[in-house]
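Input set for joint prediction.
Command: fold jointly, output tokens.
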Amino acid sequence: MSKDEVYHIVQEIIMEILPDVEKENIAIEKQLKDIGANSIDRMEIVTMSMRELNIKIPLMSFAGVNNIEGLVNVLHENVNN
Amino acid sequence: MLHKKSIGITGMGIVSSIGNDIETFTHSLQQGISGIQKMSNTAEPVLAVNIAAEIRDFSFAEQLKNLKNIPEEKVKKAKRLGQRAPFVIQTTILAALQAWAEAGLFHNKVASERIGLVVAGQNSTQNYQYKLISEFNENPEYLSPRYALEFLETNQVGVLSELFEIEGEGVVVGGASATGNVGIIKGHQLLELGNVDVCLVVGVPADLSPLDMQGFINIGAMGGKTYNEQPTLACRPFDKNHEGFVYGQASTSIVLETQQSSEERSIASFANVIGYGYYLDKNSSANPNLAGEEKAMQQAMERANITNADINYINTHGSSSPLGDQTEAEAIYNVFTDHLANIHLNATKGLTGHCLYTAGMVEVIATVLQMKYDFLHPNINLEQPIRSDLQFCGNTAKKYTIQTALSNSFGFGGINTSIALKNNK
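tokens >
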């Protein structure tokens, strides 16, 4: 699965969790909190993405992530492994 | 001694099997429409009873869109808070928005720290949890982090206080099948104490898991045996062929407000809560208690400073349970012996099913609507009354003016409650 495909899935999940956010306002370099996600929304975006991509890794793996791209990178590294 | 305050109902809301707003619910009461049907859930395991008065074809987004007189920013906020929340929270948000709008609280505001919140509900996440178990057993990692908020009953307090910007006290109260009445009583007490001027009381629907259903079947409380194939006939309060309660769902809300506050805001109150009885018969079991029920009704009248001659309507607990109906009918006979000719009775559960934790609120709302529109809703399945000395409403609605009413609710664990209401027209 390409990084773009992973990003597309993450985008869909963000829109599901944050119904007020328009797709064009989501950009890979942005931080989730900048588009209105609180800490629980952010954790939910992570667990839902893991589920969607069938990834099981410790949540600590996302510790250094500080924007959407970082999240997509960790997911992408672990998808299909 | 507390100074006695006049406390009224200034807003009401409902999401139920017979109406997702007060207008539709009123129409269903007038027409005697039953919400009891075959259950929509076809999940395994198949249970012996599969009829209920469920909130059907529920769509949070759709109903939110259809609500009237809700400011745009509140709709947005409600959507944000409710869209991914469990079913029961979605329904309480909708019921509460209706009552808040009717009480004029969006525009004609009250200081937020003078508003309290009582959530009447217990075990409200049973089915939500049950549905998560199989996936959890496979993949515990994928459990939503939101679960840690949502399995707490007090999540309702958080969600509703955020939505309505309530800063007074907020609690969850339970009282088995009397939970709805307990919620109204606790809200009333907050107002009497002077802690708040307005109290939003919200009733959380029972979302029973198959486990809970089977428990009620095994304890012998649930009806629906003879009439499993004719669901609308199954709930028969005070009829000789009653055979247990039929499960119903409803989310409810009532705004209680001191007369001083509603007058200052120029908001009408439809009815006053003038007294309540809350009596424990110290019993850990499920059986009703004659003396306990009598005392609850007497206490309600004493607190209201009225006598049994003042009551002209009783909304019975009437759950269609043989022993329950018989005990309540006897209690009413004993308390009102000389005045039975003035008193009409009906049982709302015949139409709504037994809404368990919200039954008390459903029935107070039904009582207030009957006061407002001068009618008594029918007892659709009452063909052979268990007593001939009580005036039960027949199988069609009746024109009638309720002046002063009692609304009874009794629950497992020896809980007996009764609320006295006065028509404000």
